[in-house]
């Protein structure tokens, strides 16, 4: 009977432990805090549940545009947090029950490698365990990165983990960082009733996205009340009279911001600093991520899955990592993670769904492409529901007529993007989608209209900044 140690109960570790145990392996799963990883406890589940509350408040406030007049809207952050944490607990306990049913031994404690496939566990109850197995799987995830900012800890700054437990609404939330996580929190707290200012060191938000897409999203957020300070470097922070004071430098100008709370959202770092990963024969890169080959092998008998290996930090990527390893070990089927698509959705309103190439990527692709763009203001369903902000975009290879990438900034943009991703996976061409019979009036029906629009032709040599 093969023996396995899984370090970390995230979105790859939990299903892998269950599958290996179900195949007759003896499996020990070590988790120092909560089963479910970032997604269930601090990421997808709680944030999207809170965003739903913020969306309800926004719909109520803006319902007059649809002829429905609400006298007043009041948000209760404590009640929202109670609901959210109830969902988190339900999901976490469900995962724990699944592990128990599968026969996985779950240890609550801190793991540290003491040799190849050998782990020392400092149990949370004070005990110690020394384990050795045929295979070891590292799924310890990542955590929010703290900036090197004088005073940041002294002022009680929050990360995306701590802010989920606030029970009193910030009067003015300062957010350091202008990335994907930042924008979700910015819109959410504005809709709940806070004033929000985002401070970003770069000259533009979301540099991986097309400039016109980012500009459209920024316009929506600014219209709702989110303030942006771009090209601004935080210098120091302190408390004065109960307020958080943030000093920034924007070009040659020094500015001082004052708020009730400071959220730092400047990236994430792998949780490897106490693991002694090198004892397994694996190597860490300069960011602390575990190096792996295309099949997620880090050393002999050692695999790294999910955020700890670096690269795209998405739940669906972690879960697919589990499938790659499971299929290799239990089904004799090897697949490289380099071959998979990497879709993602930013859960602002409108949502930003993306898979494959953006327009700016196609500009330097080296071969001719066509770029189809359709404003959401031309989508019947969006007009009917008063959700016309954003656009749909598809990058198409000129020679084969196949889709190379899709961006959807719009209502339920992630769902529409996913439909087009399935078309990409199925090898459907732009011509196929142009002539497809799709139900009316749905958002996906607009796929017809997208490919009926006049495309922009790129020769693959354009300046990607345009």
UniProtKB/TrEMBL annotation:
Q: Which UniProt keywords apply?
A: FAD, Flavoprotein
Report domain Pyridine nucleotide-disulphide oxidoreductase dimerisation positions: 342-449
Entry cofactors: FAD
Annotated family: Belongs to the class-I pyridine nucleotide-disulfide oxidoreductase family.
Transmembrane ranges?
none
Q: Where is the FAD/NAD(P)-binding domain?
A: 4-318
Is Flavoprotein found in the keyword set? yes
Q: Which domain of life is it from?
A: Bacteria
**What InterPro entries has UniProt attached to this entry?**
FAD/NAD-bd_sf (IPR036188), FAD/NAD-binding_dom (IPR023753), FAD/NAD-linked_Rdtase_dimer_sf (IPR016156), Pyr_nuc-diS_OxRdtase (IPR001100), Pyr_nucl-diS_OxRdtase_dimer (IPR004099)
Taxonomy of origin reads: Bacteria, Thermotogati, Deinococcota, Deinococci, Deinococcales
Keyword Flavoprotein found:
yes
Q: State what protein this is by name.
A: Mercuric reductase
Q: Which PANTHER family match?
A: MERCURIC REDUCTASE (PTHR43014)
Task: Name its species.
Answer: Deinococcus aerophilus
